């Protein structure tokens, strides 16, 4: 029982490892790379930039920082300059009070956590103000503090947290401020509320009803005009899963902007609050349950607002998924459907949730309940947790990053060549890299990663300026502007097409890779990246011209010296290998290193021409050619030969001499092979006989690389008699290797099976109080459930309270039988297991 459960978890782990390991950025730009110049805004007087707000014309960036609000000119893409700074510090007395409360001096500042455009003339800002939150109006024109309607400084309680390390969210709609934050000094009273309302529109907040919010971490909020609703995104303790201690769930909650509260019941309280679970989970895998960041992407023009997508980054609370994160997309349509469905109800005596079976008095979450009856409002007050979970649009995870933890996300729709729309995601990693990913039919392609921070930074903010073509990254130290693309970095048609960047296309006339907006006749293939189809416009003449421009670099060596040849390759998705003109590269003589370099001892037989070639997406190009020659004077000391402008560690930012077609096609004397042996992906038009031969060797070469042989044995031709012997050796070694690996895997798997249950327990230790509070489960039941939790999750998501909490279905069945039946139900999807 427990074994099968852990087996399930192990299988899911294995499938995660095997399925998602290919999400590798194609290019990598460390800080300072010439290919991506970043502009940085820092100021010695500015610390802890925490809030970013772009003006409507995207020409000014407002920054909420420590004890100040700044306005920065971002109208120039390559520079950010400070326009104005508004000081807003707590007084000496405020600081003394803060210190009296026992707070650290460095936290007793005013950290600006709300910065919103209120109306055409004013902005609104709130700060922690030495653990005593305050809000101010800011005159946008003079950038000075202004008084609000009340004439005095506004209290910030319920609008901004007290503690600078607590997360919050805020959004203004029609001059009213909607916030999600904790509303007390100790940080235990979370609230979603509305402020700055006028007239019959009154300020509203959550009722103190049990369970409206359970220790939430607020992430973001958004207004959807067509629904007249504000949506809040956060994670909180999922009390409906009371058989797992401190199980975190991600939520979407909603309120209507037309809400004015009830007349007796729910007076000055939301009558339209409802929440639902966001479930980012793949089949047979643990859920990614903790929301880190989420953004909305409006639908393409002309389509219904229901097609709005919310792209969220999720991490998991389980050790097995540590350091990994997933991106899921949820559609507004699905969110609406879940809110329109059934709701769960909390039994106040047992504190257990169940699906409501009684008569439905109202539709919870519906707008316009202001003069509904008390009965209706009482029903609404108790029915706020939607029964169903919101599942990802397109029934799957958008992306799983096997080794990167993402913290922030921005999304954009880009119109590529031929009028096709693509979704681009900008994902900031914990380690300080910005990934640019394009979503394609058959998965995600990460176009590039750009290093924005040297070190991981605690406070981060990601803001996309579409009109400026820049991603603004806010950290504790300042703001960095990253251009969304730099097409001129791609120097050939092949590189431009292989990049699969929807911003970039190859201009066949100007012969450069350029911004797609400028022209409409550009060559681009974001979906396939098929160079051989896209770059065929080149005339045979221009091809031959280009081949002739490849001059091999002369490398002078003395005999018996160790020669290192470098092969700088830009793309992480390309496979690099070496070839020689007149002899093969025997693994006994040649060593190919991880960085693509080739090492060998100079002997009379190893002198000659070498080519380093890369194969990416079926397209082969020569990255570099060398001519290794013997020095005229043999007395010169031996030296390591590097290409002058390349260092082994940097693979990027280097343009290498490149051919768009096969440069050297040696004359062949052997008969032309049969057509069925021809690999079409590398067939140039000029020399069919020669290339088909090469193609076959390529095929073989690639096959051998798959067997994890670092040594390549491609050879050009000739010395054919020797070939079989090397091949045999290779086969024997490979078979032995495979045997070893499978033996190791079996051992590891068996060990892992035993370790697994303990690993899948949520990291947060259970507190005794929680155990007692959640009632019925005995310690033994809890223990066994813990072991089974990995498999339970999926089930929970589908019918979170179906069998385990629903009074009828529960029927005294122990949780063990429950998970047993579940396993059976999921067995249909399990691959046949060896154990
Ligand atoms: C774009 O790339 C080119 C070529 O590497 C480089 O010269 C230029 O500075 C880059 N521009 C930006 C804005 O990064
Ligand atoms: C402010 O910045 C300092 C230095 O980067 C950092 O140590 C501190 O945690 C930050 N404070 C907050 C509230 O983010
Ligand atoms: C914007 O809000 C401020 C503060 O409430 C108010 O004084 C000002 O008149 C408003 N401006 C407009 C154009 O409504
Ligand atoms: C509902 O309330 C509005 C004011 O909020 C009032 O004008 C209207 O007459 C009320 N409708 C009913 C049916 O009571
Ligand atoms: C490129 O397109 C050609 C012709 O449609 C096709 O034969 C080839 O397989 C494609 N290559 C790749 C890598 O998709
Ligand atoms: C090293 C190697 O595999 N060379 C082969 C290249 O292709 C020719 C033609 O098929 C073979 O005869 C060589 O053995």
Automatic annotation (TrEMBL):
This protein's UniProt keywords: Disulfide bond, Glycoprotein, Membrane, Signal, Transmembrane, Transmembrane helix
SUPFAM superfamilies per UniProt: Plexin repeat, Sema domain
Source superkingdom: Eukaryota
One GO MF term: chemorepellent activity
Subcellular locations according to the entry: Membrane
Residues annotated as domain Sema: 26-484
Protein's GO biological process: axon guidance; neural crest cell migration; positive regulation of cell migration; semaphorin-plexin signaling pathway
Secretion signal, residue range per the UniProt entry: 1-21
Feature: compositional bias, Polar residues: 643-671, 798-835
Basic and acidic residues bias spans: 703-713
Cellular component per GO, a single term: plasma membrane
Family matches, as CDD domains: Sema_4 (cd11240)
Segments of this protein annotated with the region Disordered: 631-720, 758-835
Transmembrane segments: 730-749
Major subcellular site: membrane
Family per similarity comment: Belongs to the semaphorin family.
Listed name of the protein: Sema domain-containing protein
Originating species: Cyprinus carpio carpio
Lineage: Eukaryota, Metazoa, Chordata, Craniata, Vertebrata
């Amino acid at each position: 029982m427990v074994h099968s459960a852990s087996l399930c978890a192990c299988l899911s782990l294995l499938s995660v490892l095997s399925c998602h390991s290919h999400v590798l950025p194609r290019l990598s730009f460390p800080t300072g790379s010439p290919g991506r110049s970043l502009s940085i805004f820092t100021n010695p007087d500015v610390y802890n930039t925490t809030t970013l707000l772009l003006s409507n014309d995207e020409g000014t960036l407002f920054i909420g920082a420590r004890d100040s609000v700044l306005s920065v000119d971002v109208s120039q893409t390559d520079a950010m300059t400070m326009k104005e700074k508004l000081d807003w510090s707590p007084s000496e007395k405020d600081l003394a009070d803060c210190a009296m409360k026992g707070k650290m001096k460095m936290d007793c500042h005013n950290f600006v956590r709300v910065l919103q455009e209120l109306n055409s003339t004013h902005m609104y800002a709130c700060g922690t103000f030495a653990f005593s939150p305050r809000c101010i109006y800011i005159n946008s024109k003079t950038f000075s503090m202004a008084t609000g309607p009340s004439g005095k400084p506004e209290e910030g309680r319920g609008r901004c947290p007290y503690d600078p390390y607590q997360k919050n969210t805020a959004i203004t709609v029609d001059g009213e401020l909607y916030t999600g934050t904790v509303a007390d000094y100790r940080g235990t009273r979370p609230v979603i509320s509305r402020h700055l309302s006028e007239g019959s529109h009154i300020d509203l907040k959550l009722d103190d009803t049990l369970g409206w919010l359970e220790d939430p971490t607020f992430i973001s909020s958004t207004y959807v005009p067509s629904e007249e609703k504000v949506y809040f995104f956060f994670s909180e303790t999922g009390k409906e899963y009371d058989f797992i201690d401190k199980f975190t769930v991600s939520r979407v909650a909603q309120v209507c902007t037309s809400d004015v509260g009830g007349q007796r019941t729910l007076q000055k309280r939301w009558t339209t609050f409802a929440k639902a679970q966001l479930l980012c989970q793949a089949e047979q895998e643990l859920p990614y349950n903790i929301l880190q960041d989420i953004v909305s992407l409006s639908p393409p023009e002309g389509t219904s607002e229901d097609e709005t997508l919310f792209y969220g980054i999720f991490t998991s609370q389980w050790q097995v998924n540590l350091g990994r994160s997933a991106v899921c997309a949820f559609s507004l349509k699905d969110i609406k459907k879940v809110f329109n469905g059934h709701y769960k109800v909390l039994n106040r005596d047992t504190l257990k949730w169940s699906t409501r079976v009684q008569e439905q008095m109202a539709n919870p979450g519906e707008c316009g309940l202001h003069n509904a009856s008390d009965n209706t409002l009482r029903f609404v007050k108790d029915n706020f947790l939607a029964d169903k979970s919101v599942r990802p649009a397109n029934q799957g995870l958008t992306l799983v990053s096997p080794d990167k933890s993402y913290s922030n996300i921005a999304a954009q729709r880009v119109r590529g060549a031929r009028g096709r729309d693509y979704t681009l995601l900008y994902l900031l990693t914990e380690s300080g890299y910005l990934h640019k990913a394009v979503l394609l039919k058959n998965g995600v392609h990460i176009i590039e990663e750009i290093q924005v921070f040297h070190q991981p930074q605690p406070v981060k903010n990601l803001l996309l300026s579409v009109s400026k073509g820049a991603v603004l990254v806010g950290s504790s130290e300042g703001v960095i502007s990253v251009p969304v693309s730099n097409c001129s970095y791609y120097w050939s048609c092949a590189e431009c097409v292989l990049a699969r960047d929807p911003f970039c296309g190859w201009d066949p006339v100007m012969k450069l890779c350029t911004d797609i907006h400028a022209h409409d006749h550009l060559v681009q293939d974001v979906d396939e990246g098929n160079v051989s189809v896209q770059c065929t416009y080149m005339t045979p003449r221009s091809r031959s011209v280009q081949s002739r421009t490849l001059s091999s670099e002369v490398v002078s060596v003395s005999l018996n010296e160790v020669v290192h040849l470098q092969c700088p390759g830009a793309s992480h998705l390309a496979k690099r290998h070496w070839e020689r003109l007149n002899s093969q590269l025997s693994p006994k003589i040649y060593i190919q290193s991880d960085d693509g370099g080739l090492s060998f001892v100079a002997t009379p037989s190893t002198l000659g021409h070498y080519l380093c070639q890369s194969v990416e997406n079926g397209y082969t190009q020569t990255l570099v050619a060398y001519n290794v020659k013997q020095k005229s004077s043999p007395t010169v000391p031996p030296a390591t030969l590097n290409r002058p402008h390349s260092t082994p560690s940097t693979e990027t930012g280097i343009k290498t001499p490149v051919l768009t077609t096969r440069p050297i096609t040696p004359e062949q004397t052997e008969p032309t092979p049969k057509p069925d042996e021809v690999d079409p992906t590398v067939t140039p038009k000029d020399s069919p006989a020669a290339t088909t031969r090469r193609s076959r060797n390529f095929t073989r070469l690639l096959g051998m690389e798959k067997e994890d042989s670092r040594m390549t044995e491609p050879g050009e031709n000739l010395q054919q008699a020797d070939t079989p012997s090397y091949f045999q050796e290779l086969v024997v070694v490979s078979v032995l290797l495979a045997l070893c690996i499978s033996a190791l895997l079996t051992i590891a798997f068996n060990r892992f099976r035993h370790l697994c249950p303990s690993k899948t327990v949520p990291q947060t230790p259970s507190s005794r109080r929680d155990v007692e509070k959640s009632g019925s489960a005995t310690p033994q039941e809890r223990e066994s459930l813990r072991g089974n939790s990995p498999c339970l999750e999926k089930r929970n998501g589908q019918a979170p309270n179906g069998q385990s909490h629903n009074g009828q279905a529960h029927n005294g069945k122990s949780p063990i039988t429950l998970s047993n039946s579940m396993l059976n139900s999921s067995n249909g999807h399990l691959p046949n297991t060896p154990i």
